[in-house]
């Protein structure tokens, strides 16, 4: 039996088969049902942002960092852009060449001209001539380690109106917390990250806090929610940022104060504010 009631109207069954979300005979298995549910859940957040961009100009540019197999990009394109010629372009950025090639072939096979896939790291893409000077929407879905931070730096440089981030574990902050632990122990709050497992978990959590402050320090309004429907994933924090040119002074000071309090001053460059 096909289970098309779980598939959004307008979604190409052929695409879902190509992405191996549906089997050749149109079935969803446990894993692919979860993947589809996740991407649809995110789509609910992203679709209104695309529409909001289109109020300003008809052609939306979206960059998806750490695209992997580009489930998100393809499903977005299929649902939003495919039947509206000239409505936008999606760029997938991915370091694994074989995934980039597969996505390029699939976009060609499906006749999705508004999709490009670039074999670049997020950091490299920031200065690549292959991408436009400005980008409307930046997404990064479980982009590994500091790739989310690079995606934020990319979006800031490209003056993105929106960012949709679901961070993965970030090890860099935990490493610095660990390195400076002895010095920090006079602060009773250092108990929060004294034990190694706490160092890792707190490092990961405070990273997202610092990211949010960084975004606010650049004039963005930030919303953080749990990505429900993502219950099988440990990493389910969804950060949505919208550029509103908000006052920057307070979050900038706050970010510097948090870095100082935690012995993370050397991370100032990572969480740059100007
Ligand atoms: C966990 S997967 C997530 C894939 C996809 N976003 C998803 O949610 O299905 C992370 C992907 O990011 C890619 N990646 C990791 N670091 C990267 C970097 N610095 N620049 C570009 N891609 C990167 C990996 O090769 C991998 O395909």
Automatic annotation (TrEMBL):
What does the entry give for GO biological process? methylation
What residue stretches are annotated with the Methyltransferase domain?
34-175
GO MF term list: methyltransferase activity
InterPro entries noted in UniProt: Methyltranfer_dom, SAM-dependent_MTases_sf
Q: State a GO cellular component annotated for this protein.
A: cytoplasm
* Organism domain of life: Bacteria
Which Pfam families does its entry note?
Answer: Methyltransf_32
Q: Which UniProt keywords apply?
A: Methyltransferase, Transferase
Question: What's the protein name?
Answer: SAM-dependent methyltransferase
The organism named in the record is Iodobacter ciconiae
């Amino acid at each position: 039996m096909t289970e098309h009631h779980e598939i959004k109207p307008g979604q190409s069954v052929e695409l879902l088969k190509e992405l191996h979300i549906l089997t050749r005979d149109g079935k969803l298995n446990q894993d692919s049902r979860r993947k589809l549910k996740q991407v649809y859940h995110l789509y609910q957040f992203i679709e209104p942002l695309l529409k909001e961009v289109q109020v300003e100009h008809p052609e939306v540019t979206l960059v998806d960092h750490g695209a992997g197999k580009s489930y998100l990009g393809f499903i977005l394109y299929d649902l939003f852009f495919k039947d509206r010629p000239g409505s936008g372009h999606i760029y997938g950025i991915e370091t694994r060449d074989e995934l980039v090639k597969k996505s390029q072939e699939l976009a060609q096979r499906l006749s999705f001209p508004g999709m490009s896939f670039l074999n670049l790291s997020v950091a490299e893409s920031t200065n690549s001539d292959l991408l436009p000077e400005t980008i409307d929407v930046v997404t990064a879905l479980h982009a590994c380690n500091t790739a989310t931070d690079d995606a934020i730096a990319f979006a800031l440089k490209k003056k993105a109106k929106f960012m949709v981030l679901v961070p993965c574990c970030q090890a860099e902050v935990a490493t610095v917390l660990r390195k400076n632990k002895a010095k920090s122990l006079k602060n009773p709050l250092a108990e929060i990250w004294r034990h190694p497992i706490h160092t890792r978990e707190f490092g990961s959590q405070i990273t997202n806090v610092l990211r949010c402050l960084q975004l606010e320090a650049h004039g963005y309004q930030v919303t953080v929610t749990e990505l429900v429907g993502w219950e099988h994933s440990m990493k389910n924090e969804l950060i949505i940022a919208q550029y509103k040119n908000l006052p920057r002074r307070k979050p900038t000071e706050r970010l510097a104060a948090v870095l100082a309090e935690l012995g993370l001053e050397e991370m100032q460059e990572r969480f740059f504010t100007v």
